[in-house]
Design brief:
The complex is a heterodimer. Chain A is of the alpha+beta class. Chain A has helices spanning 60-67, 79-86, 111-124, 129-148, 155-163, 177-182, 185-195, 211-222, 271-284, 290-298, 330-346, 351-367, 372-386, 391-400, 404-414; strands at residues 19-22, 28-33, 39-46, 90-95, 100-107, 201-207, 246-252, 258-265, 302-309, 316-324, 420-427. The radius of gyration of chain A is 23 Å and the shape is globular. Chain B folds into 3 domains: 44-167 and 184-240, Cytochrome Bc1 Complex, Chain A, domain 1; 263-380 and 404-464, Cytochrome Bc1 Complex, Chain A, domain 1, CATH 3.30.830.10; 484-682, Lipoprotein localisation LolA/LolB/LppX (outer membrane lipoprotein receptor (LolB), chain A, Clam), CATH 2.50.20. In chain B, the strands form 3 sheets. In chain B, strands 18-17-16-15-14-13-25-24-23-22-21-20-19 form a 13-stranded antiparallel β-sheet, covered by helices on one side. The chains are: A alpha+beta, B alpha+beta.
């Protein structure tokens, strides 16, 4: 019954139509019309993240994201959220290593409100001391809640600081408490003038809209925003190869030890990256995956295992993670994980396995576009990172193009000791 | 025609030019366009002969589909076998009468689908081209589970590991304790699952549970996505047509009430950098109750999101937290009111103060029209957004049947909301917000927060709990006649008596622990009354050594040698004695009986030994057997077990030590008594 679904005629397709263009000030605009529900998602992606930070100001881009809810020349402090609430909308933002993303989902008759709010944020956000001081505490609580007080919460931080020596990926977006304490008001204005400019932004709108009318409104609110005058700095650091395996132990507030293996890999969007996606799905996607079948089910050495390539604009990492069963030590679990890595390096993936993995990836690929907010974000990401928003429809072909030989090759090229950081997470004393 | 087209075109051009060049007034927010009509999509429904009710929402936008089966059932009290449903949820996914777990996993993944089931629910989602196979697999799991014996112990181990890891998660701990605080441990929402209860569950218990949680007559199946009604009928009949069963029974439980005055429940998470706070109590609010929508408006004003009062106060004004929210859950059995926030240790009591202040304010001060209006707008928007998910319509339809709501409940929802008055909202606050009677659950670092929290406990007695929700920690008064002396005497007696203890003049012990393949050895030698040494070795290398010879002593570690002072010498010798309790007074120790405490499920006397240097060694002795169970000193805690006789004295042969970030199990490998210990062993440089 499964073989029926393999054959190009049966491929599930996404068919998301959109228009895109640039304003003279450099703002890239993407519009997707879908009138099935009377809502609209308005989003702006700024191509700035923690990798654009100064080495003595880590956490700055994310801290700054918080400040951009404080208000503007025309929006008093605390009023930003109220406008959204009054309009029955939802909004939020997030910051990664590579970008900062703001969005509102509104009733479609409030599209213009969304454009006004986002254009105010881009044109003349107002950043004052009181906001800086409050958000400084808020961001520190965010770090405590999401990182320091969470079991295994420091995992990304601990991996990245060892996997990179030069590249700004060596710190994570939440940054350090000391740097957050040191950040000053004039530094924020400097950051704003450099990165929050139209030519560094993508306005992506999806939902119940009319393309022609929306173009007029976009021009109305964003057309007069001046182009930034500075060159936008991008890190050009090329991180040298790791050279040798790095091993370390982290003590955390946990009961079950964990093993983390982080391998350095190429940037997202490269052919090897797709082969690695196929490989990780083979290792840990679903109950029948190699890790789950062998390590969790048969050997019962782990309660859970994961493998995922961390999608980053510059060369990133592939993380394999296992959480020990109560009676298993990390060394034993690591041996089992290594055995699976050895296996993918020796045996080519079978045709049946390849079909299974492609079916799993395809399902996730189709399901990611169920909401207009997701579509707006995906279109913006594909444009900014790959220069091709239409990958929202066609990226699946890149996965299908991966061959068994590709998987074997990337396994042998990247899943090697000299290319990895291994961390043992061990319980620290309570009380 | 041509002319008309041209006219329209040029008109559009002018409109564009006009808008683009007009002076834009940025100082005012743009007005909204005409409100779009919020339309509830349609659904279709049918019933199988066996009573299964099916709701179909067709949506062909994407080639995806979801099937979700929910069973209308009262919760089950699992009692001494609490956790049966956790094991059940894994067991039901571990094979059917037609195929093993391995085969099942393989098929699900081959479809690229996700299929899950558990006590009273099942769910499948994936690409619509696989709808038939997906539904058949889901039905097979639900109707033909094998509950294979061979899988049970694996699942029990996994569940126990999962349980252990609950102790890491402050949110999970808070939720365990909140359940007990609100509902009591004799209620399905409050019963405690721990190692003991998980270990008590048998395969038969799991098989018995099956008939309590699945039956077509009590089930609803929602099918949402890329499918037609005809297909849905055919597929459902094929998958579930032969399923049989009667309506599930209803159950009654003791009623839970909000406390009359405030109570504090604390879990001491020693190294926490934040306190997880839950201010909570049970309420009576059933889904679809007449005031349910007014309550939702009120709860949103108090703490619904980024515009809620709690968020504005605790985060935006005070910077105490990343977020603070209030929620009121409606439930057919018993609902609850909860305020949450995670805050840094030092502001724990200040954060509670602000929470209570906001509760008082919403009860005692008029709520402004402006605040009510924008909250209504917020809920209207959320309602409209929820309709983007076609599953919402199926959920509405099932709720109407399940909770016996008026047929037009959801069609009228926005009108009902719009018509609510100030008074309705104010009444909701008066009826559901209790600023004087709440359970305050805090998971955090006791020594930094306890004093500040005392004022929030009406009787000034904070209750302590373990991570799973069992009462612990708070010291109970000791029975009449028990004193520090009787506890010590009893332990000396059960250890073999003073005579036997005193007959041991010298003793050498070697214990070993291993961690990550390293061996750690602990060696002690004692030659009474005044010579002794302790050595810790790592992989055969001496890591630390303490030596006492008469009136002198020293400690040696890689950083060098340091002399011990008089008090350190006394304490070292006291601890080297085979039974400290027999000799403590000789070495300048004092002892105090502090009360009864639950340690790992056992009632123990807590005794505080204070050494001549002022160092504290807290020790716990079983009330039942009199034996030393655990101690906690400056260097960490030790659990004592496997007592065996040595020269007529019972000595522990296993020590579980938690110290400086490590948990180590020491096993006694060698023990010698009254042997010839050379004085040279105790020589000092």
């Amino acid at each position: 019954m499964v073989s029926l679904s393999v054959g190009s005629a049966a491929f599930a397709q996404s068919n998301i139509s959109f228009v895109e263009y640039d304003l003279p000030n450099g703002l890239h605009v993407i519009l997707h019309q879908d009138n099935s529900t009377p809502i609209v998602a308005v989003s702006v992606l700024y191509h700035v993240g923690s990798k654009n930070e100064d080495t003595t100001r880590t956490g700055f881009a994310h801290f700054f994201e918080h400040l951009l809810f404080e208000g503007s020349e025309n929006i008093a402090r605390g009023e930003f959220d109220k406008y959204i609430q009054k309009a029955g909308g939802a909004n939020n933002a997030n910051t990664s290593q590579d970008r900062t993303f703001y969005y509102e989902v509104l009733s479609s008759n409030q599209l213009e409100l969304g454009l006004w709010l986002e254009s105010e944020r881009m044109l003349h956000a107002k950043i004052e001391n009181i906001g800086v001081e409050t958000q400084r505490e808020v961001v520190k609580e965010e770090k405590r809640q999401r990182v320091d007080n969470q079991p295994y919460g420091t995992l990304m931080e601990e991996v990245f600081k060892r996997a990179y020596k030069k590249h700004p990926y060596r710190w994570v977006p939440i940054g350090s408490m000391e740097h957050l304490n040191a950040a000053k008001l004039d530094e924020f204005m400097e950051f704003y003038r450099t990165f929050y400019v139209p030519q560094n932004a993508t306005l992506s709108i999806a939902g119940d809209l009319d393309i022609a009318k929306t173009k007029v409104l976009v021009e109305k609110y964003f057309g007069s925003i001046p182009k930034g005058k500075r060159e936008i700095p991008r890190p050009k650091v090329v991180e040298p190869a790791l050279g040798k395996e790095i091993r370390d132990t982290v003590f955390d507030k946990i009961q079950l030890p964990a093993v983390v293996q982080a391998y350095r890999i190429p940037a997202q969007g490269t052919p090897d990256y797709y082969a690695l996606q196929v490989l990780t799905t083979l290792l840990s996607g679903g109950g029948s995956s190699r890790y789950n079948r062998s390590i969790v089910y048969e050997q019962q050495k782990a309660v859970a295992t994961f493998a995922f390539p961390f999608p980053l604009e510059d060369p990133g990492v592939f993380i394999a993670l296992g959480i020990c069963n109560q009676e298993t030590g990390p060394a034993e679990l690591e041996k089992a994980m290594d055995a699976e890595a050895d296996r993918v390096k020796k045996e080519p993936i079978t045709e049946a396995e390849k079909n299974k993995v492609i079916n799993q990836i395809e399902t996730a690929f189709i399901e990611q576009n169920q909401q207009v907010a997701g579509i707006a974000e995906n279109l913006a990401n594909y444009h900014v990172y790959y220069g091709d928003a239409n990958l929202i429809n066609t990226e699946m072909e890149r996965y299908r193009a991966v061959t068994a030989a590709d998987v074997l090759r990337v396994a042998n090229q990247y899943l090697v000791k000299e290319n990895r950081v291994v961390l043992y997470y061990l319980p620290q004393a309570s009380n | 025609m041509k002319k008309a087209t041209f006219f329209l075109f040029s008109f559009a051009f002018l409109a564009f030019a006009f808008t683009a060049t007009a002076q834009l007034d940025r100082s005012k927010a743009p007005g909204a366009g005409p409100a779009p009509k919020i339309q509830l999509g349609s659904y279709q429904s049918f019933k199988l002969k066996n009573g299964l009710r099916v709701f179909v929402v067709e949506n062909h936008k994407l080639p995806v589909i979801t099937f979700s089966l929910q069973v209308e059932m009262d919760p089950i009290l699992e009692g001494e076998k609490s956790g049966t449903s956790d094991l059940f949820n894994s067991m039901i996914m571990s094979g059917t009468t037609k195929q093993t777990k391995v085969e099942l996993d393989e098929k699900i993944d081959m479809l690229g689908a996700s299929i899950q089931a558990g006590a009273g629910f099942a769910f499948a989602s994936g690409l619509s081209r696989n709808k038939k196979e997906m539904l058949n697999l889901m039905a097979e799991v639900v109707t033909l589970p094998a509950f294979p014996d061979a899988e049970l112990e694996r699942i029990r181990r996994e569940t126990l590991s999962g349980l252990a890891s609950q102790q890491d998660d402050p949110g999970q701990i808070a939720s365990n304790i909140a359940g007990v605080a609100n509902f009591g441990d004799k209620h399905p929402y409050g019963e405690v699952t721990d190692k003991k209860t998980i270990e008590a569950v048998t395969l038969q218990d799991i098989r018995n549970m099956y008939t309590q949680v699945f039956s077509p007559k009590s089930s609803y199946l929602a099918i949402v996505g890329d499918i037609t009604l005809a297909e849905a009928k055919a597929l459902t009949e094929e998958a579930f047509g032969r399923w049989a069963g009667e309506k599930l029974p209803s159950r009654k439980f003791p009623d839970a009430q909000a406390p009359q005055s405030s109570q504090v429940f604390l879990y001491d998470r020693g190294n926490s950098v934040q306190s997880s706070i839950r201010l909570t109590y049970p309420i009576d609010l059933k889904p679809g109750a007449p005031d349910a929508i007014a309550v939702r408006v009120m709860a949103n004003i108090l703490g619904g999101g980024m515009s809620g009062r709690l968020f504005k106060n605790l985060r935006e004004t005070h910077g105490y937290t990343y977020g603070s929210y209030a929620s009121i859950s409606a439930d057919p059995l018993k609902g609850s009111f909860t305020i949450t926030a995670d805050v840094r240790n030092s502001v724990t009591d200040s954060a509670v103060y602000q929470m209570v202040a906001e509760m008082n304010r919403i009860v005692s001060e008029p709520i402004s029209v402006e605040e009510v209006d924008r909250t209504k707008a917020e809920i209207t928007g959320a309602f409209a957004r929820s309709l983007e998910d076609p599953g919402t319509i199926a959920r509405f339809a099932i709720n109407i049947e399940r909770y016996k709501l008026p047929e037009t409940y959801y069609q009228d929802y926005l009108t009902t909301l719009a018509n609510l008055t100030q008074e309705d909202i104010q009444n909701a606050a008066l009826n559901y917000v209790k600023p004087f009677g709440y359970n305050l659950v805090v998971v955090g670092r006791r020594d930094s927060i306890e004093a500040g929290l005392l004022t929030y406990d009406a009787d000034g007695k904070i209750s302590f709990f373990d991570a799973f929700g069992r009462k612990a920690g708070s010291l109970a008064p000791v029975p009449e006649g028990v004193t520090a002396q009787t506890v010590v005497d009893r332990f000396v007696q059960v250890s073999g008596g003073m005579e036997n203890i005193n007959s041991i003049k010298s003793i050498s012990q070697k214990a070993e622990a291993s961690i990550q393949g390293f061996t750690i050895e602990m060696e002690t030698d004692f030659k009474g009354p005044d010579k002794g040494r302790m050595m810790a070795k790592q992989m055969g290398q001496v890591a630390q050594k303490v030596v006492v010879n008469g009136k002198k002593g020293s400690t040696v570690d890689p950083s060098g040698e340091k002399p011990l002072d008089e008090n350190d010498i006394k304490e070292t010798l006291a601890q080297l004695n085979p039974v400290l309790e027999a000799v403590y007074a000789n070495y300048g120790y004092t002892v105090e009986l502090q009360g009864l405490l639950l340690i790992d499920g056992e009632r123990c006397y807590q005794m505080k030994f204070v050494g001549p240097s002022g160092s504290v060694d807290t020790r716990w002795y079983s009330e039942e057997t009199g034996v030393l169970i655990k101690s906690n000193g400056a260097m960490g805690s030790t659990v004592y077990s496997r007592y065996q006789p040595v020269n007529g004295v019972m000595l522990p042969h296993q020590l579980d030590v938690t110290e400086q970030g490590m948990s180590l199990t020491f096993i006694l490998k060698e023990i010698k008594v009254n042997h010839n210990l050379e004085n040279s062993l105790f020589e000092l440089k």
